[in-house]
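ok so I'm stuck.
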Amino acid sequence: MIHSLMSTTVRAVRRIPPLATDIAVTLAALAAHSAPFLLTAREADPVAGYTILQYLPVLGQVLPLVWRRRAPLAVLLAVAAATGAYLLNDPDTAPQPVPYALLIAVHTVAVHGSRRERAWGLALLTGAAAAQLAGVVLRAPSADTTVRGLVMYVAAWAMGRAAATRQAHARQLEREKEMEARRAVERERAAIARDMHDILGHAISLMVVQAEAGPLAVRPAPDRAEAAFDAIAAAGRNAMDQLRRLLGLLGEESSEGAPTVARIGALVESVDRAGQPVALTVSGTPRPLPPDVEAAAYRVVQEALTNVVKHARASTVAVGLDWRADALVIDVVDDGRGHTGGAGRGLVGVRERAAACGGTASFGHGPGRRGFALSVRLPGAAA
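replied:
not stuck anymore, here's the structure
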């Protein structure tokens, strides 16, 4: 409760415009410096103008603080000069034991000043400290006053540097959060791109195969032609359903169509009906897997079959699901044209999918350097 209240307060303070904060600081310093003139009892003085002249350096000390963030060093020099004028102008009539404006200016240089401005600020403070110590030697101010002043200035500088360090650390954390958010967006875009590639590539490949075979069977085998066109429509509807789910246009009621290992059988059957002979073998005991592994397994088989339909010109394709004690091993082997020596976007996507859920993928020539073989190992320890 307390932490939440503090966080809310910090966020509210951060939303205040910097200029409004500087004006509030200036008014507070003006009130503090004006208090001695208002609260100190004075006898009637015929030379009333002297009091007004004495008050003018107070305005010189305070008013520059409005611009303290935009020109920290210039404000420090202006406030220091006005403070000197105040001390020379008979401050005993309205003594001010704490130089609030000068401390704020010192703190501002430590927080917002550049490296060069901080160096000049330290040089100015060092010179002022030396002058104070020289005054002690000459018995001008008391030793207590000198020590108190030095401690206040050092504390103001130290607090400013500590605040600057905290702000730099906060900015670094914000940059890291922004970078992580960008990386998350890039990963999500890559995942969506892989899914769309798999969905559209597979559906379009089946539709092209059926569209090419349909006209050849219109007259000699009308039933076969009708089945081909039905397969085209089914592939298109399936692709649209998956795309809607991918883009979040459907609700939870369509979850039964999510890519899982259990749906690999239906995927194989759809390719087989499209005219590409595919055989599925399952060994071991199937068991539930994490959702990311289920999706990866389905997409891997989908991409492999899409490549077979598009490139392999294979007469037979074998898909194997081997349920082992600690993994699910997927093998897709065909007797087609074989490995072309490259790795297209689809095969790169297969590797990325496997790696994303802690698995591995390899591909190359099939048995006897004929055809093409893809092997993917996905983590799937038994419960």
